Amino acid sequence: KAYKIKDPVEEVTTPEEKVVSPEGEVKFKVAMFDFGIKNNIARELAKRACEVHLLPADTDASKVMELAPDGIFLSNGPGDPEDNTKAIETMKVLKDSGIPIMGICLGHQILALAHGFKTSKLKYGHRGANHPVKNLETGRVYITSQNHGYQVESNSIDTKIAKEYFVNVNDGTNEGIKYLDKPAYSVQFHPEACGGPKDTEFLFDNFISMMEN
Q: Torsion angle, CA of 32/77/192/33, rounded to 10 degrees?
């Protein structure tokens, strides 16, 4: 119980800003917080005409605003989400910027913590490419790829500002949040496919639509 990984995000984040360019014309600029990103997340956005600026995990809100991005993306990453105090404070500022926001995995948890929701450690965690999640808007179930040991506590979500988007069919834990008062949503699972099915790649298209609007 005393075991704890120390500063895992600091070990895996990019040390300096990097740019991932699309093959064709740039239509959108995305500020991507790199908490330990799976590279296919950036590739999925680049495929959709996004110029992705990979930023260190401790990047200030002012730096992001200087970039004047069309969207903000919070990547996956390791460890206890509550340990990322700088990123949480940064997102408390950026969440009210009006800029579309999407988060995956650790990014999902950090965005939730920035809104005052709670996270906790799962007994076993979700590992593997076969986890069923249910879209609460449509009732459709997707098989997803997951690798995380923490959850956003469903009963901590303030229903005045957000609603559950996805839930885990196996244990009922939260798998996604859609914010009601801003263009932002996040998911606990990995929609960028590698490795896993491609069923939920539409979530990237939804992010593009938010930037277009």
A: 0
Contacts of 3 (CB under 8 A, 6+ apart): none
Residue 194 is a catalytic residue: no
| Integer Cα distance of 145 and 112 in angstroms | 21
Q: What pLDDT, in 10s, does the model give residues 80-103?
A: 999 999 999 999 999 999 999 999
β-pairing, 162-168 vs 174-179, is antiparallel
Query: Number of C-alpha atoms within 13 angstroms, CB side, residue 18?
Result: 13
Q: List, for residues 50-83, the tens digit of each pLDDT value.
A: 999 999 999 999 999 999 999 999 999 999 999 9
Q: Which two tokens stand for residue 158?
A: 């303030």
Within the chain, where are the H helices?
Answer: 8-12, 39-46, 61-67, 85-94, 106-114, 202-212
Task: Tell me, yes or no, if 126 is annotated catalytic.
Answer: no
- The β-bridge relationship of strands 18-20 and 50-55 is antiparallel
Put the strands of the sheet holding 119-135 in their side by side order.
18-20, 50-55, 28-33, 71-74, 101-104, 184-187, 174-179, 162-168, 119-135, 141-152
Answer whether the bond into residue 195 is a cis peptide, omega within 30°. yes
Task: Quote the pTM value.
Answer: 0.96
Separation of alpha carbons 213 and 197, rounded Å: 28
| List 53, 105, 126, 175, catalytic entry | 105
The answer to whether residue 50 is catalytic is no
Q: With beta carbons less than 8 A apart as the criterion, state whether 108 and 147 touch.
A: no
| 106-114 helix and 85-94 helix, angle to the nearest 10 degrees | 60
